[in-house]
Design a protein that fits this description.
heterodimer; A: 6-stranded mixed sheet; 4-stranded antiparallel sheet; about 40% helix; B: about 220 residues; mainly alpha; disordered C terminus
């Protein structure tokens, strides 16, 4: 895959971001940049702040201090001294939010709507796209994720893998600049993980900018341009997947990666016997 | 043993009582739904003071026995306000305010019971608070709310019998009246109970079917 160069457009810039839940500091001065077409995977143990970081980008979590800029538009900024906080109207925040598409661990599809209605909802209601146009786009997107035959079904009638693919199509419907994936395969039965990863790989190959929280090291290794390892709310390691996953320098990262190797090793005798 | 001729002979009196009961049921449920909608939305407000006021209303009417509220509205409120309140209005006010507090609570619980992820997803798509409420949260909340709303309304119909304590001529009051000059309490109170059963049991069964029809897993 062609690697985006430094010249590529800066789609997401996070500077010095801190987040607290009550007295617990979840993120400590995190900075990262994502350029157009880049696929960045966030790794880390549970509780390391990966999901919290992702949810800060569209302000589902309210950070304490720092700066977030999406495609040149600041959505959050407390200034250097944390005092001259950027105050945007709900409308302005939503306009910037719509530049990001989010895919959730629990899918969060709207249960009272069909797959098609789920995908059309935001373009029609938020984007004021004419209904017919939105429907055509929604059908195309659902076709892209392999659900052309399921457009009329409610989420309850779909498997987990199918639901998550609707979730991807729904997020894509607003033509986002960057897609945020929050452990998109963690709630799925093992045999359904593949179909969702396949859709994500196709999306990455099409040049979509992606920031992905996942435990699928295989996906990180094959698809990511860059891997970021979060530990206790801080970026502990960052680099190309081969470097991070095969030659981890950081001790915590070594332990983290080793655990995955261990579970793979544990399976070997079973796999060999087949 | 039973001599139901007394019912037939006094049917017009009991029929009048039944009409009064039905009138009060419909009127107080209607007023209660409006009160519940307003107080429920106040309880869901993002302003803390409003939420506290809504809470206060709900806890006030939910925790005072309805009979006390009713008697207080009829006998004490006119003295406080220096106005005349007829027994009809006192009954309407007390019963509406009472059931309104329950409806408000049902609305609040229904909205807050909608999965947090639904709001997250709608927000992430760029929807405003109003759009989220109207398109995503309320449609799901209403489905959850229907069974408890119908249940509370059934209780409300039974509660209208308390009106007889302030001499509003509802079904129970008319029954007591008939019983006072016919000396047939057994037949009359049995008949009154039966009338409530005949009206409410089918309603309850419809509600139960609705509960099954509206289960909406994710």
């Amino acid at each position: 895959m062609s690697r985006p160069t430094d010249a590529a457009r800066l789609v997401l810039a996070i500077e010095d971001l801190s987040l607290c839940f009550g007295h617990r500091q979840v993120l400590r001065s995190v900075s990262l940049e994502v350029r157009q077409g880049e696929v960045v995977v966030l790794l880390g143990a549970s509780g390391s702040g990966k999901t919290s970081l992702l949810r800060c980008i569209n302000l589902l979590n309210n950070p304490r201090s720092g700066r977030i800029v999406i495609d040149g538009a600041p959505i959050f900024d407390t200034g250097l001294d944390g005092r001259d906080r950027l105050r945007l109207s709900e409308r302005a925040i939503n306009a910037i939010r719509a530049k990001t598409g989010m895919v959730f661990q629990q899918f969060n599809l709207f249960p009272h709507m069909t797959a098609l209605q789920n995908v059309m909802e935001a373009p029609v209601i938020v984007g004021r796209v004419p209904r017919a146009e939105a429907e055509a786009a929604a059908r195309r997107l659902l076709g892209q994720v392999g659900l052309a035959d399921h457009v009329g079904k409610r989420p309850a009638q779909l498997s987990g893998g199918q639901q998550q693919r609707v979730g991807i199509a729904r997020a894509l419907a607003m033509n986002p600049m960057v897609m945020l994936f929050d452990e998109p395969t963690s709630a799925l039965d093992p045999e359904l993980v593949g179909e969702v990863l396949k859709a994500m790989v196709a999306l990455a190959r099409s040049g979509m900018t992606m920031l992905v929280v996942t435990h699928e090291l295989g996906f990180a290794f094959e698809i990511a341009d860059r891997v970021i390892f979060l530990d206790d709310g801080e970026i502990a390691a960052e680099g190309p997947p081969a470097e991070i996953l095969l030659h981890p320098q950081n001790l915590r990262l070594q332990n983290f990666v080793a655990r995955f190797h261990e579970s793979a090793d544990m399976l070997k005798p079973f796999l060999a016997g087949r | 043993m039973f001599d139901f001729s007394v019912i037939v002979q006094n049917a017009p009196l009991l029929w009048y009582g039944l009409l009064v009961t039905l009138e009060y049921t419909v009127a107080t449920i209607t007023a209660g739904v409006i009160i519940g909608l307003i107080v429920g939305l106040i309880q869901l407000s993002r302003i803390r003071l409003l939420r506290a006021l809504g809470r206060l209303y709900v806890e006030f009417f939910r925790n005072i026995p309805l009979l006390v509220t009713l008697l207080w509205t009829y006998y004490a409120l006119p003295i406080f306000l220096h106005v005349n309140i007829t027994k009809g209005w006192a009954g309407l006010i007390a019963l509406s305010c009472y059931v309104g507090s329950f409806y408000a609570e049902i609305l609040r619980a229904g909205v807050q019971g909608v999965d947090r992820g639904q709001t997250d997803a709608a927000t992430a798509l760029g929807m405003t608070y109003r759009q989220r409420m109207r398109r995503i949260v309320l449609p799901q909340a209403f489905r959850r709310m229907m069974p408890p709303l119908v249940g509370q309304s059934i209780i409300q119909m039974k509660n209208t019998t308390l009106l007889s304590a302030i001499t509003v001529p509802d079904l129970l009051y008319q029954g007591s009246y008939v019983s006072s000059f016919t000396y047939k309490p057994m037949e009359i109170y049995t008949a009154i109970g039966a009338i409530f059963l005949v009206i409410l049991v089918p309603l309850t069964m419809v509600t139960r079917r609705m509960e099954f029809g509206h289960v909406s897993p994710h």
